[in-house]
Design goal:
The protein has 242 residues and is of the alpha/beta class. It has two domains: 160 residues, 3-Layer(aba) Sandwich (Rossmann fold); 66 residues. The protein is built from nine helices and ten strands. A hairpin with a 2-residue loop joins strand 1 and strand 2. Helix 3 crosses helix 4, helix 3 runs parallel beside helix 5 and helix 4 crosses helix 5. The longest helix is centred in the last third of the chain and has 15 residues. The radius of gyration is 18 Å and the shape is globular. The N and C termini lie far apart (36 Å).
Length: 242
């Protein structure tokens, strides 16, 4: 099966700082892969380049062998990439449904009017939020804000979904709900690359983990193997634990 995402020698410099240094990896269709590393290791910068928010300083990003690195975010989105952010970026003055409708208006199949309203409800139902469609977005709980943002991402009909700490800040019950929700997306044919610090979620969800430290990739292996790698342990806990 051909790779869905191929990242080759990806580099990002900010002045004299190299935030991502010659990173390569690939994702096969249907995988859930964790992108891990200590704070400041370059994980979100990688997501920002894959989604088009940042242009690479070097290297390439390809979707199904078509190079997309350097394209604008809207063009990459139309090619099948959607994402969430560390801080939920909702439109608080709109209803929950209207937040999703705004995404549908600019998606692969631009929808308006009653067709958009119907599709928005379907997207919200996928994340368990259809019953709050007419509520104001600003009145949602934290977990429901995250659900709404995920529904907006699903409205883009992605093949590849980038989740940036989507499970952060959830209580134990919400975390289990969130894990089940992410797992359900794979059954719909969506490939997921997730940046996450919640190790219980990583173990429950990820087939494989790519681990970064100081801008470099230091591991790419099945989850249990990657988390036991001495260099990974050293990156997270220091030399005394490796």
């Amino acid at each position: 099966m051909s790779e869905l995402l191929t990242v080759s020698n990806l580099t990002k410099r900010f002045g004299g700082l190299t935030a991502v240094n010659d990173v390569s990896f690939s994702l096969a269709p249907g995988e859930i892969v964790g992108l891990l590393g200590p704070n400041g290791s370059g994980k979100t910068t990688v997501l920002n380049m894959v989604s088009g928010y940042l242009a690479p300083s070097g290297g390439t990003i390809a979707l199904r062998r078509q190079v997309v690195s350097g394209l604008a975010p809207n063009r990459i989105a139309l090619k099948g990439v959607a994402r969430t952010f560390q801080l939920v970026r909702g439109l608080p003055s709109l209803t929950v449904a209207e937040n999703v409708i705004a995404a549908l208006a600019f998606g692969k199949r631009p929808l308006w009017g009653s067709a958009a309203a119907t599709e928005a409800l379907a997207c919200l139902a996928q994340v368990g939020l259809a019953h709050k469609a007419q509520q104001s977005a600003k009145d949602l709980t934290y977990i429901d804000q995250k659900r709404m943002e995920l529904a907006r991402a699903l409205a883009a009909e992605p093949e590849l979904l980038l989740l940036d700490e989507w499970l952060a800040g959830l209580n134990p019950t919400e975390l289990l709900t969130g894990i089940d929700l992410i797992r359900s997306l794979r059954s719909r044919g969506i490939t997921i690359l997730l940046v996450e610090h919640v190790m219980d979620a990583i173990r429950a969800l990820c087939d494989r983990c790519i681990v970064m430290n100081a801008g470099r990739k230091i591991a790419d292996a099945p989850t249990a193997e990657a988390l036991c790698d001495p260099e990974v342990v050293r990156a997270y806990l220091g030399d005394g634990h490796a």
